[in-house]
Amino acid sequence: MLSTSLVALDSTVIATAVLTITDQLGGFAQFPWLFSIYLLAQAVTVPIYGKLADMVGRKPVMLFGIAVFALGSLLCGLATSMLGLIVFRAVQGIGAGAVSPIAMTIAGDVYTVQERAKVQAYLASVWATSSVVGPLLGGVFSEYVSWRWIFLVNLPLAAVAGWMILRKFTESAPRQRHRIDYLGAGLLTVGAGALILALLEGGQAWAWGSASSLGLFGGGAVILVAFALVERRAANPILPLWVFTRRVVVASSLVSLMVGAILLGLTSYVPTFAQGVLGTGALVAGLTVGALTLGWPLAASQAGKVYLRIGFRSTALIGTVLATVGAASLLLVDAGSGLLQLAVGCFIVGTGMGLVATPTLIAAQSESEWSERGVVTATNMFARSLGSAVGVAVFGAVVNARLGGVDHPAAADLAPAVHLVFVGVAASAVVMIGAAAVMPRGRAADPETHSA
């Protein structure tokens, strides 16, 4: 929980301090890179950490991730320029790429499916608390202390988390050391990084049809094809191709892809709609989308009881249907709607996501042996990162195309543009129903846990 809090807080605490940071360091036009570079570094390293955790154990990979994240936080707190801060955010992202999936993998190792029903409530509470405390801390630090403490506050948290894992977590699972697939890791990092960067910055830093965009998409695709060919012959591939042949893993990853797209679509554009169309302040707009982050952990904390009773597939179907109902209700939101209607729609979507995101991941974990669980978890989380990048790209392109590149659109123009985002979110939720429907029936067996 402490390790997860590092990443959970970091995902929300910086947003409220952007203007304060750019006032001191300059580079306002570059500030989106503070988010993009972090997401990119985190996404491309997740599959590599997952495989390493299956080879050398969870503990060393988790401790490495915490140490790198702490180093990045220290460097960010000492940054003297926007360029330096962007580079140091990449270091943070490299550390975060280990912390998130390995924390979930450890939970899968230590606890049985039945026990994870309760443990998930604890892990969900971390994200719920961070969604409220993060923006508050960011505002307090930037206004009353210094924005640098947004990053420096991670140091004591990282120290305690690392110490507890070092002292309290003991692995006893038999492991065999294999030669690391350096070529596969390099090709995956460069290829996936190029595609995600093209998605994140396309239409913003450069035009979709520009040489930069086409070069990144084309080059990334070619490198990933080369990666697939290398992995077919590798003795110990960094991302085994068997993950794409197991129905439960493919289904859970497709669900995770849609979760990423829906989450980024709503968290990006619900506040914009609340402020630009309904005329609310930034705080109220944030609280409105907060209904999404409230419904999610509340449902996730109860999801265990549901899937133990009716199974993973049925629980996921209920969750996806709920998310679709919530997304459909947002299609009725217009300039004459109230904030309550917008918040209720977000809450229903969040409730559905809480019933589908975690049960589908646990289903995939429970059908995997110890030596596979790290890769399976990392594949699921990589899919969510990819979905987030695709969601940002697609929804941003749709809105910009409708608005025609206007910097300060009028409410009458902004409302129909954001409505198209709500349409995209609803379509993603429908796809999620299909992904949940193809999951295997019944509850997957839970292989014997090997850690204590």
TrEMBL record:
The keyword NAD does not apply. It is found in: Cell inner membrane. Residues 1-443 form the Major facilitator superfamily (MFS) profile domain. It comes from the Bacteria. Its main location: membrane. InterPro entries: MFS, MFS_dom, MFS_trans_sf. The chain crosses the membrane at residues 31-49, 61-88, 94-114, 121-141, 147-166, 182-200, 206-227, 248-270, 276-298, 310-333, 339-364, 385-405, 417-438. The keyword Transmembrane applies. It is a multi-pass membrane protein. Keywords: Membrane, Transmembrane, Transmembrane helix, Transport. Gene3D superfamilies: MFS general substrate transporter like domains, Multidrug resistance protein D. PANTHER family: MAJOR FACILITATOR SUPERFAMILY, VACUOLAR BASIC AMINO ACID TRANSPORTER 4. This is MFS transporter. It comes from Nocardia tengchongensis.
